[in-house]
Amino acid sequence: MIDPGDQKLSIRKQAKLLGINRNRLTTRQSKTTEEDRKIMTIMDELYLECPFYGQRNFRENLKDHGYDIGRKRIRRLMRIMNIEALVPKPSTSVPAKGHEVFPYLLRKREINTVDDVWCADITYIPMEKGHAYLVAIMDWHSRAVLAWEISNTMDSAFCVRALKEALRRTGRKPNIFNTDQGSQFTGNDWISELQKQDIQISMDGRGRWMDNVFIERLWRSLKYEKLRLWSYHTIPELRALTADWIEFYNHRRKHQAHGYNTPWSVYQTPVSQAA
């Protein structure tokens, strides 16, 4: 949207009008090294096995793989991967400045119908060169994946695209949408889209690590059942593998919790029959 050749508005003024930092207009050389990528691949495997691992556990386990690195570097890599230890957290953290906190609406709520609650989460996917991020929109009751998007950056745009696709594809909307307090889900683009649809917003409170358990299981299954078994070098190749597996998950993978029906068949069941 920035036009460097505009005769009336300078780049500085255009960036200010769009709310963009001018520094983001210049391509920066990635600080992520080849060794960082190898370490993050190992960390991703460890995290799938032990999602409660924090900096200390990562540091000690990485030694078994020949990497004796400090916690500061591990903390930086965890931030790039968008992961944190799934354990109850102390109530000493302070939300980022300007972060609008919405209440957690699911406490003691029985979720036994589709479209009552949707949720979203993001996972890190290592690649041969660089990495990618995958966001999924899931119906809480049926566990059906309603939409998903892949991006090589952690901005909110690909999350909003997935949300709009879920609304378009299903022709429905949930009563409540629950997410964590990640920057992608607390930004104005995401919040305004939910408010425009008159959807109640719920955010995991501090220590509510179990609230993402269904999508965490989805990520684990996707990586072990598909991505770890196939090679991919580009985003289009990764997208094709992901599309193939999610089609299998939605339409052919039977869930014991739903009487061995598939997630999509449960999602499509009329409310009167489901009741």
* CATH fold-level name of the largest domain: Nucleotidyltransferase, domain 5
Low-confidence stretches: 89-96
Rounded to an integer, what's the Rg over CA atoms? 20 Å
What is the H/E string? HHHHEEEHEHHEHHHH
Any idea what the shape is? globular
State the CATH architecture of the largest domain. Answer: 2-Layer Sandwich
The number of E-state strands comes to: 5
Strand order of the largest sheet: 3-2-1-4-5
Provide a count of the helices.
Answer: 11
Helix content: 40-55%
Class by alpha and beta content: alpha/beta
Kindly report how far apart the N and C termini lie.
49 Å
Instruction: Indicate the CATH class of the largest domain.
Output: Alpha Beta
Summarize the structure.
The chain is of the alpha/beta class and 275 residues long. The chain has helices at 11-18, 34-49, 55-63, 71-81, 157-170, 183-186, 188-196, 213-227, 235-251, 263-268, 271-274, and strands spanning 117-126, 131-139, 145-151, 176-179, 200-203.
Descriptive account of the structure:
The chain is an alpha/beta fold. The chain folds into two domains: 34-81; 117-274, 2-Layer Sandwich (Nucleotidyltransferase, domain 5). It has helices at residues 11-18, 34-49, 55-63, 71-81, 157-170, 183-186, 188-196, 213-227, 235-251, 263-268, 271-274; strands spanning 117-126, 131-139, 145-151, 176-179, 200-203. It has a five-stranded mixed sheet with strand order 3-2-1-4-5, sandwiched between helices. A hairpin with a 4-residue loop joins strand 1 (117-126) and strand 2. The radius of gyration is 20 Å and the shape is globular.
